[in-house]
Give the backbone structure.
Amino acid sequence: MLLTGFTTAQAQTPDSFNYCDEKFADIQMLRYKVDGFEDLSLKEKTFIYYLQEAALAGRDILFDQNGRYNLRIRQMLEAVYTEYKGDKKSADYKAFDTYLRRVWFSSGIHHHYGSEKFEPGFSQEWLRSALASINYTEPECIKGQDGKASWEELMPVIFDANVMTMRVNQKDGEDLILTSASNYYAPGITQKEVEEFYANRKANNDPTPIMTGMNSRLQRDEFGRLTERVWRVGGMYSGALERIVENLEKALPYACTDKQVVVLKRLIEYYRTGDLRTFDNYSIHWLQDTESRVDFVNGFTESYGDPLGMKASWESIVNFKDIEATKRTERMSANAQWFEDNAPIDARFKKPECKGVTAKVITAAILGGDLYPSTAIGINLPNSDWVRREYGSKSVTIGNLTHAYAMASQGSGMSEEFVVDKATCEMLSKYGPALDDLHTDLHECLGHGSGRLLPGTDTEALKAYSSVIEEARADLFGLYYVADAKMLELDLVPNAEAYQAQYYTYMMNGLMTQLVRIKAGGTIEEAHMRNRALIARWVLEQATVDAKANGTKPAVELTKKKGKTYVRVNDYAALRNYFGKLLAEVQRIKSEGDFEAARQLVEAYAINIDAKLHQEILDRYAKLSASPYKGFINPVYKAVRNAQGEITDVTLDYTEGYAEQMLRYSKEYRTLPLINE
């Protein structure tokens, strides 16, 4: 999966749609346009309608996965927001309002990207007073407590910086389970216990291994023994999954193809049973359905929220194919074997046969779960290594979201402030959008699907470093090939020099501009940010060492102009060689399951930040009108029905506000109890 990077303003053809909405904290809310929806058939519109209902029904799952108190905190804060009659111009109330919006955005009390717990900005005393003024009683009080007393348990969770400090802790040498607030493991369970539990459950020499533990919470039974509580209908998260299944069943008659009917039935079966063999079967049918115009992701998918990279968060996206834009990804995927054969990696790690590689550009219709409000711009699934090896994968680039990001970035001043010179600014403006899309295509379509594990390599050998290494591998694949002559041959770039825009943007982002997302004194925690830092810093170091040895200018360097730091690229062709060299090593690490090499690479290049440079970047960024993080408000789908209750049309409404949407979702898509222990 590729999350949006922090990019510079880029030239786009303006249109009348209002992409930008409100700002709060470090976040800019955007809207995305669902172009082409009105041209779909009634059957396709109805299919999307029920799928988007299923996408929204899983919202509570992610809140609970992100922290065991999140649903209770959300309920309490929303009660204050809707019922409080006190002074709403006070500093405490304004800070409260911002805090709630951040909780909505991150599906919990920790930052969606950095994982650190939010600082409230308002006092405990003010919150207690506000709760007392509305006579708040927790609807589902804890056993042995009354409804008023129970919310006192939430105060240290919100206000004590030493309680549940990080949602996902990745610090080397610490117990990653005990020190992470994510709710995939019951309190008190240690990392050693988790690793031993799942090591004992793995089948030896299984050529088609299930992704053990992916869809469950690990907890203790009444005798203190570890046991899995599976996420399924009748099990954990049943209320949400029942609602999801109900809407998937309503969608069935409107499926695009017979293949898609099978996909839906397999997904429904998986939700009902929780069986991971059924999930693999569903995944195979899903990736082989390449003909349906409307498509979707719905399920426990990505494992970034688990510090061990095992358990998956719930997410959904409903989409339909952008037929014209897909022509470029089809040219790419049709040549998958060429890219695999010519990759700068050891022959042992190459796939002898690339199977089932498909790619398309899509228009997002709705975002849900871990893809909302902050979302990816590209997706490659499934994640099972054996399924990818035997059947292939399906890749998407989300065209209307990348367009919305680009439109929103106009006028931010990022290029003027951080790009080294006018000529480079002009190059980024001219080629940046197209090359960003191309890199995303390569990352998702070919990068994630490339390479293979050596026989006997444990798919979870890299443990906490697996996500960073995998994202680095896909990014490096894209960076290496975006400059290849094959891009010209396939008519994917306007000329042989256009790739330079992507190289400059990537290095600037990895070395400098992505750091605006991190507070002074912090470290890089999120996997995609670590990946970019790893690549850019490793290349910078290698270029510096080689330049000193050869008595030449480095291929890339940090330079000063009028007291400000900039990235300067002196040799774009040499950069490609460095990307290729690092790709070879990263692929080796994954193929061999070399945990120690992964640890050394990530710890050396991906985490720590030069404090002086960081402060300079923060100071320069503070003068701009930009927000480091962006997310989306969903459109509202309305079913038009006749007297018999039949859907005769589905309409779109883009006017719903952010708070309005979040409160409506909490009311209409409340599917779980506040406590899911």
Q: What stands out?
A: Residues 5-12 have pLDDT under 50 and may be disordered.
